[in-house]
Structures are given as C-alpha cells and as structure tokens.
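hey m, so remember when u said the tokens were messed up on ur end? i reran from scratch. heres the input so u can diff it against urs
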Amino acid sequence: MTFLNTINDILWTYVLVAVLLFAAVWFTIKTKGVQFRMLGEMMRLLCVSGKREETGNRHEDSHHSISSFQAFAVSIASRVGTGNLAGVATAIAIGGPGSVFWMWVIALLGAATSFIESTLAQLYKVKGEDSFRGGPAYYIQKGLGKRWFAVLFAILITLTFGLAFNSVQSNTIAAAAQVSFGFSPVWVGVVLTILTVVIIWGGIQRISRFSQIVVPAMAILYILLAIFVIIISYDRIPSVLYMIVHDAFHGSAVLGGGVGMALLLGIKRGLFSNEAGEGSAPNVAATASVSHPVKQGLIQAFAVFTDTLLICSCTAFIILCSGLFDSGLSGIQLTQLALEGEVGKIGSVFVAVAVFFFAFTSIVSNYYYGETNLQFIRNSRTLIVIYRLVVGAMVMTGAVTSLEFVWGLADVFMGLMTLCNLTALAFLGKYSIILLRDYTSQRTRGYNPQYHRSTIPQIADKTECWPD
C-alpha cells in the first residue's frame, strides 16, 4: 500500500489532474463545444441507433457487427458500476461535498475528449473474426506507426480493466452483500467468479445482449429512487447545492479537507466512473456498425453525461441529503447507510441489488476491453483462455481483499493508461475534428452522413473498414 500510495501521489497530484483538464478544455475549444451544441443530435442518434445501419460495406453489414445502441449499452455497462455508487461516496467522504462539483466539471468538459477518442476508434477499426475491433492500441499503431507504444497501451488496459478494475467491482459487490444480507465475501466471490466465466465465454454478442437488457433497467430504477429521495428532501436541496459549490472553492470545514483534495478526488473518481479520455470506451465504440465515425463519437460523448451528470449525481444527492457524509464510513457502505436513512432498510437492500447488476455488467464489459487488446498483441486462442481464467481469479481475489488495496491498484493502472491515451490523442485528435466538420456539412445539406476514405486521403490506406 505504501508503494501504491507513493505512485498515486506522483501520478495524480502532479501530472494527471492538469493533463486531463488541459485536454478536456483544448478539445472543447477545437470542436467548438461539440458536447453542448450537438446534444440534440446525440439524443436523436441514440433514438435511431437500435439497428445496424446499411453502410454499403459487406463486412460492416454482416450479422457479426453490433448496433450503435448495443455498443452504447456495453460502454455504459462498464461506466455505470462501482464508480457511481461507491466511488462517489469515497470522493465525498475524503474530499468533501466540493468533489461533486469537480466531477461535474470533468464530465462536462471531458465529454469532448470522449468524442475525440471514440471517433478515432471508429475511423481506425479493423475486421475481427466475430466483430470489429478497435481502440487506442489500434489507432496508435495505425495513426502513429508506433507498435511498441500500442503494445504498451494494450498491456496497461488489459491489466487495468481485466484485473484491477474487476477486483474493485467484485470487492464492492461483496461488501454490499455483507452489509445487507450478511453473506460471506468468500461465497459471494465464488458465485461471481462462476457467473463471470459463463458470461465472458460467450463473446461480445452475449455481453452486448446482457448489457442492453440489464443496464438501462437498473439505471432507470436507481434514478427514480434518487428522484424520490430528492422530492421528500426538497427543503434540503438549496443547502446541498450551496455546499457543493462552496466547498469546491473553499474546502470542507466539516471534514478538514481542502480545495486541492476536493479537486483531486472529484477528478480521480469522476474519471474512474465516466472514463472520458481514459481509452476504454473506444474499444467498444469501434465495434458498432455506423455510416460515419462521428455518429458513435457523439453517442459515446452522451454516455459521459448519462454516467456522471445523472447517475453519479443521484448518489451524491442521496448522500448529501442524508447528512451522513461525515459519519466516518466510505465506499458502498456510506451509500447504503444514506439511502437506508431516507427510505428505510429497503434502501440498503436496493443498493446491494443495484450494485450487483451495475458492477457485474462492468466486470463482463471490462473483460471485453482486455480481450480485444490481447488479440491486438497476439491473436492466440490459448492466451485468451488463460486471460479468462485469470479474470475469474481476480474477481475472486477482489471479493476477499481490502477496499484500500483494490482502489490503490486501480488508480495506478488507470493513471498510466490515461497518460498513454492522451498522448496519442494530442497527435491524432485533428482527424476527429476533420470528421466532425465533414459530418456537420453533410447534415446541413440534409444528408444521412456517410464516410468515405477519400475524405481524408492521407490516411486512406490505414482505414480499412470504410468504403472508397
């Protein structure tokens, strides 16, 4: 833990917060605020994205590809998990209510970064055996021509999502089940491991179908419950909002936290939850069948809003309305106690059930991020089988180890892979901006935007999945 804390202090205190904010502001300016001015287009695309598009590309239109909405559901399945219920609680417990404000800031600005990386993933995607594949490793190799750099990212994301993040998810499920039902973490870990192995052996189609059904249903139920808490606590909302904004710039007198701690925890836990700029969502964004890369870029930018501005805010308001944020608890236990204080024991039970579905869908989606990057390094069936078994082992390990260890491990790997991805975006982001202008131009003329390789001739030979 001492070693992990030292690395995290260096990464997050001196490097990542500044880099993430700079990238988010820079891409917001370069895209002219795409996440704000095209919000209506994002919602329109989401409403019509349930079926695969006819793109004129025989492989693109095959039954192996998945729809844009399915890709959205898988990425949301990874985003909506422990970060929303436990990560927000941890940020508030340590950094104070002001950390919520910085979560909102990194989501509002970071959505532009998410647009850039997901559009690039579509542009540089490749044909796989049962679906398209893509992500930072692919656009680093094709766009920058740096195989070693691409392999480095592929290794980091495999360790981050397949192993570190999945241990966080299983740890949270086990803790919630122990609080609400008294279940032993060991037996929770065994059940989770079996379920994980069964689901991940089915590939991206099974993962997308599972996520498409479970995630929206649980998210809607959780949002409705949060709205109910806000309604019955309406008289406390003004003071909660004041506390969030005030503590973001003045620190928390109650918790003894400063502005720096609020900013650090808000951005760190915000990134863990919404993944904007981290390089994870592009891996599933690349699998969708769309007629123009920008379509999936816009949908993934909207996913950042869905994750942080809706679901993370729900958790924040539940905790802050309860007045228990300085109780000494942290993580999922704080969320459970806060909801139990508002609606009774049923609140704690609902959180345990919700966190199971949220975190479990995150586990299987996180697995996919690792698989697609392992295939990038070496397309070996034996390697994939070993990886699936190791993922199962890490799910079991996470269920029985300490909260501090799994979060510390996750923060280190998350920080390193984010730095790799943002470095690539600094060089390749210009292509997403070119594509955005092309998309906007076609929409202005009343067309359904179609991308052809001739649009950016200098990289035409590197974008194999698009028609001439």
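this time it looks ok to me. The first strand starts at residue 126 and ends at 127. if urs says something different then somethings off w ur setup not the seq
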